Structure prediction request, 647 residues.
Amino acid sequence: MLVYTAKRLLLAILVSLTVSALVFSLLYLSGDPATALAGERANEADIQAIKAAYGFDQPVYVQYFKWLGGAVQGEFGQSVYFRMPVIDLIVERLPVTMMLGVSAMIFALVLAIPLGVLAAMYQNSLIDRAALLLAVVGQAMPSFWFALMLIVVFAYWVPILPASGSDSWEHFVLPTIVLGYYATPAFMRLTRTGLLDVLSSDYVRTARAKGLSPAMVLFKHALRNAIIPVVSLAAVQFGFMLTGSIIIETVFALHGAGFLAWESISRSDFPTVQAVLLLFSWFYIILTFLADLLNAWLNPRIRVA
Amino acid sequence: MTTTLSVENLRVSIPLSAGVLHAVRGISFEVARGETLCLVGESGCGKSLTSLALMNLLPSRAKREADRISFDGADLLKLGERGMAKVRGNTMAMIFQEPMTSLNPAYTIGNQLEEGIRLHKNVSAKEARERAIYLLEKVGITAAASRLGQYPHQLSGGLRQRVMIAMALMCGPDLLICDEPTTALDVTIQAQILHLIKDLQREFDMAVILITHDLGVVARVADRVAVMYAGEIIESGVVGEIFSRPTHPYTQGLMNCIPVPGKTRQGERLGTIPGIVPSMIGEMTGCAFANRCAYAQDICLQPLTTHDIVPGHAVRCARAEEVLALTAGSNQAGTIQSGSPA
Ligand SMILES: Nc1ncnc2c1ncn2[C@@H]1O[C@H](COP(=O)(O)OP(=O)(O)OP(=O)(O)O)[C@@H](O)[C@H]1O
Ligand SMILES: [Mg+2]
Prediction:
């Protein structure tokens, strides 16, 4: 297990570095950042001044290492728009996004796993078909459209929930449903197929041959093995959810890091965009790493690898 | 000898898109305490479905019917799922054909050994653990106590099958069903496992049903033999009778397929049975083997019954006596000694 953990950790660090280089190079993707920052009426002297101020006059690799060195210490420079340290902005906004992500994940799992289990146990029954329908609809429906529908229904027709803002838990209900529902079908289908697979396996037959009750067979012997791929998917989905939060937070005007990213992109606030992207990616990498460890714990066969 | 299990007219059918597959078609047999019954037959003749039917562990779409399945004095057909769960793994245990996949990869050997006995018998965790260690040693696993913490993937196929045997014995069953316990293992391990099963049977005085397609295995371990063909038992009797006087043309064909030390010359061709097994979908009248049988006549297509040619040696062949007379004296495998493991 120790060797396995070390290997995974090394891989995670390598991926983090690669991603950081990509995020950094985004800065130059849209042309010269100093010119963009200086604005349309700036003269050559202004641009030179900005270059010196932001260090754009140094070689790219020096800039990158300086930036990365700052990043690992939580130092992302000043926000061009807000005129305050980027890190303070993020610390202020991140809890909202995390709150949204975690509640959406819980919503998705709590909905998807029991449905997947039922669909597998009563294969081809009404409940299986209903679950399939839910999955198809969920996959086909654009999340922003679903968000707007929910706002129309629950904020205007039956005004029981707020349509925008992030002041109370009620503000999180609709965004959680939209973001979570988006991830539900994949979890549900994976639980269903995984469980069907496992239920017809030889070791489940062994468990039944021991005289274990159907509940013991399902929860002890079947579900644990069926859930392994779901754990991996949960990490990936959480990453998608962070990305999704950019749209959802914007639609619901939820003041999280996703909304911040969207605002900053439209304001050419490079340091902020870079910081949010980098943190989102690193967060995603850490999650994948933790999912690997959890998987190894669930599935002893992986541990030796 | 007290009869442990007695089965009358067991049928297993599976509805398929092409029609109903009658995989087991009315078989009857008995096993007594301390006795080994070998069910032998080629692949697909319904051996595994028969054993799963006894445990009531058939695939969900398969249907089981029988006139009676009496086990330890109770009629299994009348037990509900709950009652059956009390029998499974407790008084009737089973070892499967696939040792590599029959253990749950997520739990330790100890966990899987102990859960059954904790459920069926009123024992403490410590007693269950001691029983597990005792049985692991019995099945020839060294350093038993430390094995309890190991996971299935850390064990070889032979060891896993030994663990499966130990697991089946945890509650001290009256009947042990072994479905081709050695087919997936290599030859040297096969012999060891068979020996082990035979020894344990004597020690624990169990009834054993051993399923195999290997007549060599039958010769080593069986007390009685039932030969299956296309879902029916076509011949049964004590092992000495079957080997010295195989009567059904199919049994004779099977005997021709095994080499006999001292009789089969180097390079001599072994027999094969020409033709193919008939489809088991739909109804079948007459003898299932008729299309491959050298002795088949019109009478073989009439409905037929199983009858004794001598007491305790039953054959399902309309021309059994004639076949026996025709083949007398040319019995190839008659020298195989019965009963004792080699
Ligand atoms: N779940 C199932 N669905 C459909 N057909 C099945 C199923 N299980 C078994 N059968 C069919 O029933 C017949 C008997 O199968 P069974 O597994 O009992 O054979 P077997 O004698 O154990 O063979 P083997 O020696 O290969 O293990 C075969 O023709 C098989 O194809
Ligand atoms: Mg089989």
